[in-house]
Each structure stands twice: as C-alpha cells, then as structure tokens.
Amino acid sequence: MPQISDEELLQLQSAVDELRALNDIASAINISMSVEKITQTTLEQCLKRTGAAQGAVFLLENQSAQDKFKTFVREISPQGDQMPFRINMTLSGWMIKNKAILLSNDPENDPRIKAAGFAKVGINTVLAAPLLARDGLLGLYVLFNKAGGGFTDADSRFLGIVGTQTAKVIDNARLFEQEQKLKIIEKEVDVARKIQQGFLPKHNILTEQCEVYGFNEPAKQVGGDFYDMVEIEPGKLFVSLGDVAGKGLPAAMHMSTAQAVVRSQLAINTGDSLARIASSLNILMCHFMSPGEYITALFGFYDRQIEKFYYVNAGHLPIIIHRKDGTLEHLRDSDVIIGIIPEMIYNVHEVPMHAGDTAVWYTDGITECFDTANQEFGEARLDVAVRKTAGMSALEAGQSILRDVLEFRGPADQSDDITLLVLKAH
Q1: 211 CB contacts (<8 Å, ≥6 apart)?
Q2: Per-residue pLDDT at 65 exceeds 50
Q3: Is the pTM of this model over 0.70?
C-alpha cells in the first residue's frame, strides 16, 4: 500500500469533506423549494463547512437597480454572536464591478474594502462570492469571522462552487415560482372569462317580426366588447353593442359593469328611453374610469309595428343598413364617447326599417383586422361582405361576414376583440 504524508492525508480528508458538504447541499435543495429556503439551507452548510461565525445572502431587489441589495437570509453559527451588519456600498460596489470572490483576512487594512469600516461592527475576516446566473448578478454570499483564524483558499473555492450552483438553483426556483403564480392567474382569468360570458346573451332572437344574431370573440381570454339583445314584447326589442378601450382584465371589468348597468337601466326605463340609458351609463362610468379609459357604444330600439329603428351612437362606428333593394346606408350620427363628460346629453336618432332590411353593428376588431401582410380589412371590404348577404337570414348574414373576415386574416393573430350584431326585419 503506497505511503502518503500527513499533509496529503489532510488534503485528501479536506477534499472528501468538501465533496460531502456539496453533496449534502445538492441533496437538500430542489427547485420546488422557495428561494428563501434554498438560500437558508445552503448558508447553513457554508457556515458548518468553513467555520464562519455568521453569514448572509444579499439579493438584488431588481435587475435594473444593481446597487440595491437587501438582506435575504442571515444565519449565525451556534458559537457566533449577532452582529449588526448590513451590506455597504464599498463591498457591494466591489462585487458588482468585479463579480469575483473576495477573501480578506484583514479587511480594515485591505485597500479593496477598508473604507467599509468592518472593525466598528466586530468583523475581522470576510469571504464573499457572487451569485451569477443567466441574466447576470443575482446577489452575494458573504461569510464573516472564521473561528480559529482566517479564511483559506479552500474556503474560497468551496464558497465559489456553492455560489455558482446555488445561483442556478435560485434562478430556476424563481422561474418555478413565477410559473406557479402564472397558473393561479390563469385560473382566475378563466373564472373571469366564464363570468363575463354569463353577461352575454345565451340565445339569438328569432320571431315572426324580426331576428337578431350576435357574435363575440375576445382577442385574449377575456375582452372589452359587449353586446345585448332583449325582446321587450312581440315586435319590439332592445339591442346594444359596445367596445371598452383596451383589452384583457381591466377592459373586461369595465365591460361587465357596463353590461350590468345597461340591463338594470333597461328594467327601470321603458325600452325606448335610449338617451336615459346612455346618460346613466355615462355618469357611472365617468366615476369608475381612469383618464384614458372610455367606451364607445350603440344603443338601439326597434319597433316592427311602426317600422322604425331608434338609436344612440356614443362615439362608435357607424351602423350599416342593408336595404332589401341591395343599397347600403351608413348611419354616422354620433355623440361623445362614454366615460368622458358626466353631463353629456345623448341624442336619439331614427331611421325607417322595413321588412327585408338588415342593420349591421360591429366593433373595430372587424374593420381593423389585419392579414399577414399587415393590410387592414377596412370599411370597403366590410361593405362588400355585407352586400353578399342579400336575401340571407340574420344568422346566415352574420356567419357570412365573419367567414370573410377570417379568410382575409388567414394565419395572422387576432389583434382585437371581434363583435358583430345583425338585426333583420321580417
């Protein structure tokens, strides 16, 4: 058996101890643990391995502010005393600049960090290692006051290895935590989507006097468009359509509020009180909405007996009337959008609507639909699509228009919520 010296034996024993400590750390941590638990576990092993009296992990508050560290975890060995230490600009500045291990057994006279004033807080030895990950510096490992002397090169190598591996685990753990939070948010958004869908009509209207077809497809899981159709009595019905500025959850919240307000006002007022319905919604939304938020909307009341269609346009796109003879009329009368001027008075307009005539309401998700070449569907293409629906029912007309829009868009992403409402007089 070959002979080895006492020094070689000590080196071998130290290497074995180091491997054992690294194995203990690797076995103790995984990405499903919280970042705090990971750093605490590794720090405990570092204190045990190096014999340091105290250690701390300082993490950057955010990647854009690389001079703002916060104490994330602090550990004290059983033999150590609590020291009122907080990382200072001298040490953090050196670590940010060099991103290297710093070993100092005489920090009071070390030109790199002597300005830190470690002696005032009872620190006589320092060992620090950066936590480097894919996106840069995550934070620092810092150990203080090794028992029985100063930190060694072996301590430095060990902390460097721990720092490198821990940084990767922390980085992955943060991604894991973000993924878990995202799953929770997705569940909440799904609940919001189901609630929002509950506000939309469950069925189209089909009677001897008229028929109405409605369609809504949000660009995201939830959207800011709404529509409604209510048969007040045979031959008389109320329809509405609106577009809340923006997309996603904020727009969806305003959409749900607007839909609920319109329904409640419809129950209070008679069906032809369009101006009061629009004004009531406007006053309420002026209180709810922040600057830059608003709603464009249409409110309509159709009376088949007198063949009249009444409407209020609050800053929305024009209604298209497709006459039985094939001609198109664009009703461009419009007032101010909802949510801007509390005292706004809305005007009611009327237009004759006879048997065979069709009214088409839509949001800008149709006219501002883009194809892969970034071309816009636009009003001209919409007019062509509407003309093609001559003689069709409201359902057939609506599906035909939507089919033209989807064929035009092709594989391009849906850029905005799409809502369509088609009313046809029998």
Answers
A1: 204, 205, 393, 394, 395, 423, 424, 426
A2: no
A3: no
